[in-house]
Amino acid sequence: MSGTSTDNDGQGMIVNPKPTADNQDWDGDDADRADRLRFEEEQAMIREQSEARAAKAAADAKKAADAKKAASA
Hints:
The protein is an all-alpha fold. It has one helix at 30-72. The chain has a domain at 29-73. The N and C termini lie far apart (84 Å).
């Protein structure tokens, strides 16, 4: 393969095939669907961890406020 070719040989391009008339709901192959599922599961886990951290921080802040209030009383 020569390095001086000026025509576009498709290198580095993303090609998305157009759906045929009998396959209008084409959404990729099994690997694409698995990637979407894995991404959705990861996002759900991140949300759960984020909510748990926020709840723990709120509980810690309340506990600290209650301890400060008890100490000053």
